[in-house]
């Protein structure tokens, strides 16, 4: 079986497993929807009280918010295997079984546990995008749609890259550390506001080290047709999502180094 | 028996759980780093909102410096949020070890209460200390003084705050006990906590200081039990509640502790009568 059909087969198996407990899957999805929805309350309450933030209206900020949450929802559904690599694979020794199979390791991990409940976050992201469209009057021309999909793909790649790095780290620590949440959940939190709000050193981190701004901020500016208050030219948003793919490639590079030094825990 | 003898088993349960939880140092440090990042982003967002609006002072009963201190305070007190029942209780129910607790000649509710309080306190104290070191000492030294955690309004406010944190710990434990009972009844509390968590985050003030939520909600926000976890301690810290108002705040916390403990005992009694111990 080729890699891609294998991946879909694994994915289907994982999803049908969760479908055996429909009430639980539904409750977890609702929980994800509510749990990610509360950040919306924070954004809404702040705009309700202050009106605007440095010239940004709530509809514009909602575009960042919706895009980032859709990206993370998809990446998180696909990348759970890397997230739990330490606790569920390395410590138990199950990882050795994956290594023995003559199939790409990354695909096996990605297809291992495709979480249906992430639909909750995805749905919430989509609703916020609809709100942004109405509120900020976004014209979804074919060009804008294409750019949004490109940004989405780049963002999924970036968040997957973070999850791969988290998995890589667990080759050393043999556990899944909460520290990676700084980049996953913390990244979502940072990228759902316009980059221009942040201090300069933090903007640099988000552009050049963990390029969240490249997949969310610059493309969203291009979709909104809004000039960058920091002076980046308009074409930046058209190419910057590529940084997400570069990040993913770099993460897999680190993954291979970690894999080479992997020694089974033997349990 | 003297009162001291009567209390001994509960004190022992508290202390042993406290010491046991202090072992998880790596996890605590990782959690701490996450909280600093989180707080940092929130502080920058607050600074942007306050900075952009000329009427910031009029629009809000809370200054930027207070909103920033509130953020760090909330990050330090994060483990007070009752997300989950005590995992040890849940495990005892699943494995059937709960039967031993039922056989002991002590009050089962009080024993679990003491254990859960120890569990929460052991995660609370190191994080508070680390957060204070980071936000009140390191940030100013790093030249980010305006992002720092400010000292309390005055000495009285500081004392009232500490007292209020102790009450918040008891209140949090009373809520965790309700989750424990729910876990015992349902054998699984994940569904409950998935729905309860967002409510807790919003109404405790962890998401945003309650004073920044719409003005029309303020009266209702202040009397609900979750305000006692963060918001009342924080208002005492800033001196917003002083004199009689401070006593009312502390009294409200006490009221909710008593009410929730009474409800928890009742619920636990009912659950225990129908509990079927999982064999093992």
TrEMBL record, chain A:
Domain of life of the native organism: Bacteria
Positions of transmembrane segments: 21-47, 53-75, 119-138, 144-165, 205-223, 235-255
InterPro entries: ABC-2_transporter-like (IPR010390)
This protein's UniProt keywords: Membrane, Transmembrane, Transmembrane helix
Protein name listed in UniProt: Putative ABC transporter, permease protein
Protein's organism: Variovorax paradoxus B4
Lineage: Bacteria, Pseudomonadati, Pseudomonadota, Betaproteobacteria, Burkholderiales
Automatic annotation (TrEMBL), chain B:
Transmembrane intervals: 27-51, 63-84, 129-149, 155-179, 191-213, 250-268
Superkingdom assignment: Bacteria
Keyword terms, alphabetized: Membrane, Transmembrane, Transmembrane helix
Protein's recorded name: Putative ABC transporter, permease protein
């Amino acid at each position: 079986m080729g890699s891609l059909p294998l991946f879909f087969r694994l994915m289907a198996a994982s999803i049908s497993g969760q479908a055996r407990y429909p009430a639980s899957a539904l409750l977890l999805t609702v929980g994800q929807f509510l749990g990610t929805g509360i950040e919306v309350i924070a954004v809404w309450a702040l705009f309700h009280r202050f009106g605007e933030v440095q010239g940004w209206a709530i509809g514009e900020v909602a575009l960042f918010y919706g895009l980032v949450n859709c990206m993370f929802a998809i990446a998180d559904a696909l990348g759970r295997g890397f997230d739990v690599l330490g606790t569920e694979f390395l410590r138990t020794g199950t990882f050795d079984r994956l290594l023995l199979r003559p199939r790409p390791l990354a695909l096996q991990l990605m297809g291992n546990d495709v979480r249906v409940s992430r639909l909750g976050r995805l749905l919430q992201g989509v609703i916020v995008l609809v709100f942004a469209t109405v509120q900020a009057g976004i014209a979804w021309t074919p060009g804008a749609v294409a750019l949004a999909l490109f940004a989405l793909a780049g963002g999924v790649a970036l968040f997957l890259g973070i999850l791969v790095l988290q998995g890589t780290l667990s080759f050393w620590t043999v556990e899944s550390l909460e520290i990676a949440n700084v980049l996953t959940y913390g990244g979502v939190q940072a990228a759902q506001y316009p980059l221009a709000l942040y201090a300069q050193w933090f903007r640099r981190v988000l552009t050049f080290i963990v390029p969240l701004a490249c997949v969310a901020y610059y493309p969203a500016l291009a979709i909104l047709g809004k000039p960058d208050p920091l002076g980046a030219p308009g074409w930046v948003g058209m190419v910057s999502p590529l940084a997400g793919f570069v990040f993913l490639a770099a993460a897999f590079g680190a993954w291979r180094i970690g894999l080479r030094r992997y020694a089974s825990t033997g349990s | 028996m003297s009162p001291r003898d009567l209390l001994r088993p509960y004190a022992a349960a508290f202390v042993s759980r406290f010491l046991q939880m202090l072992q998880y140092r790596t996890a605590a440090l990782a959690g701490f780093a996450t909280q600093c990042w989180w707080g940092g982003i929130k502080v920058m967002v607050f600074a942007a909102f306050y900075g952009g609006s000329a009427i910031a002072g009029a629009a809000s009963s809370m200054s930027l410096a207070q909103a920033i201190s509130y953020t760090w305070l909330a990050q330090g007190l994060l483990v007070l949020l009752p997300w989950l029942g005590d995992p040890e209780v849940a495990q005892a129910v699943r494995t059937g070890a709960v039967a031993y607790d039922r056989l002991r000649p002590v009050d089962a509710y009080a024993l679990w209460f003491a254990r859960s309080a120890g569990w929460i306190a052991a995660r609370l104290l190191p994080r508070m200390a680390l957060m204070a070191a980071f936000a009140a000492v390191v940030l100013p030294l790093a030249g980010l003084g305006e992002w720092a955690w400010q000292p309390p309004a005055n000495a009285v406010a500081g004392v009232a705050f500490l007292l209020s944190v102790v009450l918040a710990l008891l209140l949090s434990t009373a809520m965790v006990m309700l989750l424990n009972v729910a876990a015992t009844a349902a054998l699984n509390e994940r569904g409950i906590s998935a729905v309860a968590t967002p409510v807790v985050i919003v109404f405790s003030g962890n998401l945003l200081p309650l004073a920044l939520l719409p003005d029309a909600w303020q009266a209702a926000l202040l009397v609900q039990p979750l305000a006692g976890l963060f918001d009342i301690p924080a208002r005492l810290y800033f001196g917003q509640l002083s004199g009689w108002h401070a006593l009312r705040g502390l009294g409200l916390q006490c009221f909710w502790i008593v009410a929730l403990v009474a409800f928890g005992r009742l619920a636990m009694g009912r659950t225990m009568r129908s509990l079927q111990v999982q064999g093992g």
